[in-house]
């Protein structure tokens, strides 16, 4: 009996062969950020030459305090060029001591020049989505400048530029003009549905990054067709009811006042009785408090409070209408998601007009869109008024 058990155990040993693709951790080059640019090589006619820059973690520099003056950096950026990223990654593997390992990738920065090329952005995302090492939580942003330069900043507060950038990006609740971070998994859904979308736009200066507005993508061509600034991004957030923070500056009696947003929701109703003249009514409801004011009138005065709320409504409506105007007259693309509402609530009408919604006859550009805001000041802070400078 014991002999049989021994033979069985010996046979099982051959089944426990371990991982066939096992790689020692010391042999891996951990990539936490990737930048994608067009290469300067003009020789390739059929496909554009691409440049990939990867930010590798250098473990020896991680524990050093920021700004310690050590020559040992916590990261290194390496670049390679080629027609395909599979080729670039393989080339990079033969020129560095450790093969690139992307399982800890946190951020992909794509230059606007790359994103403007038809279908190129979709092809890039396809590569990352197919790779089993990649996670759907990876953030994607668009750079107005060379994407590589974003990875080369040296922030004062972090050893790793990518960690600094992702921390800044998460502060969308601090400003209504910031686009929410977009994950690769979300982009995958947009690509599958040929849906228009907006990705956060970044720039850099003096070793700092600034998120302001976004890049608008056409879902059919998978390329950037326009850019929106911070205020236009705020208008987009108001229309979609997405911004959960930020503030609005207004003037009442020629005095500055700051309204801090605490709650925001929008309701969109689409009238399709006349398919050639779609009417869209948008109601934007906000709640917030007065965070800052310069003046001596009491906020307990109901008439004064109503005047403040009316000023806030006018500001929100103006910002939202400006974004809508840019979408209809300049970009000529529905990036608000109206098409998804039509598809969900007016399916028969959508089937009739979908080929001409924001292409062909461009019904979207000729639609009547009305915005109405309803702001409520819930709290006025610890005090209801302050004195003007120089008053008794």
From TrEMBL:
Topology of the protein relative to the lipid bilayer: Lipid-anchor
Secretion signal, residue range per the UniProt entry: none
Entry's localization field: Membrane
InterPro entries reported for this sequence: GerAC_N (IPR057336), Spore_GerAC-like (IPR008844), Spore_GerAC-like_C (IPR046953), Spore_GerAC_C_sf (IPR038501)
Keywords noted in UniProt: Germination, Lipoprotein, Membrane, Palmitate, Signal
Domain spans labelled Spore germination GerAC-like C-terminal: 212-381
Residue intervals of the Spore germination protein N-terminal domain: 21-203
Any one GO CC term of the record: membrane
One annotated GO biological process: spore germination
Family: Belongs to the GerABKC lipoprotein family.
The protein's name in its UniProt record: Spore germination protein
Organism field: Oceanobacillus polygoni
């Amino acid at each position: 009996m014991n002999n049989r058990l021994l033979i069985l155990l010996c046979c099982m040993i051959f089944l426990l062969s371990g991982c066939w693709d096992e790689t020692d951790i010391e042999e891996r080059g951990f990539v936490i950020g990737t930048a994608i640019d067009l290469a300067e090589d003009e020789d390739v006619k059929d496909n554009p030459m691409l440049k990939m820059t990867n930010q590798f973690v250098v473990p020896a520099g991680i524990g050093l305090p920021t700004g310690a003056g050590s020559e040992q950096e916590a990261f290194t950026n390496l670049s390679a060029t080629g027609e395909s990223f599979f080729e670039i990654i393989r080339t990079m593997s033969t020129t560095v001591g450790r093969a690139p390992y992307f399982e800890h990738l946190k951020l992909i920065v794509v230059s606007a020049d790359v994103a403007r090329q038809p279908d190129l952005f979709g092809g890039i995302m396809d590569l990352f989505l197919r790779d089993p090492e990649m996670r759907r939580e990876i953030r994607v942003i668009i750079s107005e400048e060379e994407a590589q330069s974003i990875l080369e900043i040296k922030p004062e507060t972090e050893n790793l530029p990518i960690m600094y950038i992702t921390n800044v990006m998460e502060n969308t609740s601090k400003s209504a003009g910031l686009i929410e971070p977009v994950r690769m998994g979300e982009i995958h859904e947009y690509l599958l549905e040929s849906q228009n979308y907006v990705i956060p736009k970044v720039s850099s200066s003096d070793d700092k990054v600034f998120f302001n507005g976004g890049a608008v993508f056409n879902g059919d061509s998978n390329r950037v067709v326009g850019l929106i600034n911070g205020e236009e991004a705020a208008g987009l957030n108001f229309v979609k009811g997405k911004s959960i923070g930020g503030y609005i500056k207004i003037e009442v009696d020629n005095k500055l006042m700051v309204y801090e947003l605490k709650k925001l929701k929008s309701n969109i109703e689409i009238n399709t009785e006349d398919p050639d003249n779609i009417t869209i009514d948008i109601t934007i409801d906000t709640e917030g408090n007065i965070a800052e004011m310069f003046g001596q009138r009491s906020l307990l005065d109901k008439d004064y409070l109503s005047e403040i709320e009316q000023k806030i409504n006018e500001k929100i409506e103006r910002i939202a209408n400006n974004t809508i105007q840019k979408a209809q007259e300049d970009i000529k693309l529905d990036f608000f998601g109206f098409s998804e509402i039509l598809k969900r609530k007016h399916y028969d009408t959508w089937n009739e007009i979908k080929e001409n919604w924001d292409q062909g006859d461009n019904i979207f550009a000729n639609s009547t869109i009305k915005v109405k805001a309803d702001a409520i000041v819930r709290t006025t802070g610890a005090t209801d008024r302050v004195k003007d400078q120089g008053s008794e």
